[in-house]
Amino acid sequence: MRHPLKAGQDRKSRMHVLDLLGRPDRREALDQLIETTGFRLADEPTFRPLSREEDDAAEYELERYLRESNGQLPTLDDEWWFPNRDDGGAGPVWDLIATLAPLQEEPSPRPALLLVEAKAHVGELKHKDPQKPLPPDASPERIKNRHSILGCINETQMRLNRAHRGRKRLSTADRYQLMNRLAYACKMASEGCDVVLMYLGFLGDRGIKKGEWLRDDRHWQRAVGAYVRGRLPQWTLDRPLTIQDPGSEKSGTLWFIARSLPVTRNTPS
Predict the structure, then answer these.
(1) How deeply is 89 buried, as exposed, middle or buried, from its count of CB atoms within 10 A (0-12, 13-18, 19+)?
(2) In sequence order, what are the beta bridge partners of 114?
(3) Using one digit for the tens of pLDDT, what is the confidence trace for 182-227?
(4) What does the alpha-carbon distance between residue 50 and residue 223 come to, in Å, rounded to a whole number?
(5) Alpha-carbon distance 216 to 194, whole Å?
(6) For labelling, which of 76, 143, 221, 259 has a CA lying 20 to 30 Å from the CA of 36?
(7) Is the pTM of this model over 0.90?
(8) CB-CB neighbours of 171 under 10 Å
C-alpha cells in the first residue's frame, strides 16, 4: 500500500529524489552520474531513503545509516558532531545515501559511500547560511555542542588543506550546510572510507519561481562553482583528494562532484 508523502516531501528536490528512487533505471542513472569517479553502486547499495512509503521516505542521518550497515562501513560516534542530543540537537540529514563498489573487477581494499545533497533551484544553495547564534540563556550542553561543531569544522579545514596543499579557511559564518557536508565527508574518508560527495541538481522544474529553477547543466555547474568559491579551490571539483590524518594508517579518497538530472515532473506551484 502506498502512503501519501509527509508534509514538505512533495515539493522541490525532496520530491525529485523520491521520484528518482522510484524509477526502474535508478541504478543506471546514478551509475552514469558517478562513472568518472571510478565507482558504481554496490550490488546491494542499501539506499536511504528507500521509497515513497511513509516509513521509508525520510532523510537520513549518516550516523544511523552507518550503525545499520552491520560492520560493512566505519561508524561515527554519535557524540562526534553533537556531544549532547538531549536538547533536540541532531546531525545533518542527507537526501540520499548508498554504498558503492569500484568499477574494476578487483574488490576495493576500502568501503565506499555515496552522499548526495540534492537541489532543484539556485535558492537552495544558500550563500548566506550561518550557523544559528546561541541564545543568551543557552545551556552548558548547547554551548558544548557549539564548540564541538567548531572543532569538527577546524578538523575539516586541516584535512582539506593537507589534501590540496592550500590555505583555505572554513567558517560557520556562512554556507553552514556546505561546511557540515564537507565535514562529514572528510571524517568518513579519514576513517578509511572512499567517499563521493555529490551535489545533484534537478533541471527544468518550472513549478519553481521563474529565474530560480535550474535551466541546464551549465547553469547548475556555475551555481555550484559560485557556491564553493572561497571555500574550496575550483580545481578540487571532480578530482580525488586523499584524506589521511597525521600518524594514522587509515586513509580514503574524497570526490566532490556536481551532477544533474532532468526532472520527471514539476513541483506543485
Answers:
(1) middle
(2) 98, 196
(3) 999 999 999 999 999 999 999 999 888 766 889 999 999 999 999 9
(4) 28
(5) 29
(6) 76
(7) yes
(8) 16
